[in-house]
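Researcher: Let's continue the batch. This sequence belongs to Chemotaxis protein CheC, inhibitor of MCP methylation, and it's 215 residues. Same format as the previous ones, please.
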Amino acid sequence: MKIEKRFNELMSFAASEATFAFSKLLSQQMTLASADVSVNVSEVQSSIKESIKEEVAQISPDMGGAVIMTTPLLGTLEGFGSYILPGTSALRICDVLLHRKLGSTLQLGSLEESALLETGNIIVGCFLNALGYVSVLDNILHKKMTLTVSTKSEIPNLSYISSNGEYRVRISFYMKHIVQDERQRIDIDGICVFFFDSAKVTALLNRPRNPEKSF
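Model: Same format as before. Here are the structure tokens for Chemotaxis protein CheC, inhibitor of MCP methylation:
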């Protein structure tokens, strides 16, 4: 599959919308100093599970492992979505959303995991909604997200994810937000990775365009 310029532009738009939604969520609770997103679109031939594990492996051990949220995607285009947080960023998100001082959340319990899943649902949902708003990639839904915690030294096997090594379009976007309170500024990093079947993406993009939509 040749990844068209308009597809790259569409993914960048959707990633920006998801980043903005998360920025808005954070800024309701604390001062948001800055937000940035970078997007990469590529075609890969590897299992979804291995691709996600590769992303987790790149997170520095100094960042306290990782929190991995995943969900199947259904509807017009089937696929898989994930939201990966370094452990330290996950704890800081909990500080913000649960109205705590920065640095006060030290571990994840059921309340903290619920807050993180809410964040994941907002980001993934906004990304998919943006796709439907501007393109033929509409009516893509996601199921309830699954949360897995990875330690500093061990990456979970993610055995609940089943996939083969067929060709897929992989969309990765990396978010960095900086929040601050009266005492300090801290970084919140996050990685979203989406996978779609290459052949199905090509077929959808070859459909006649809806003149009411931008892409």
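Researcher: Any comment?
Model: Residues 5-205 form a domain with the Chemotaxis protein chec fold (CATH 3.40.1550.10).
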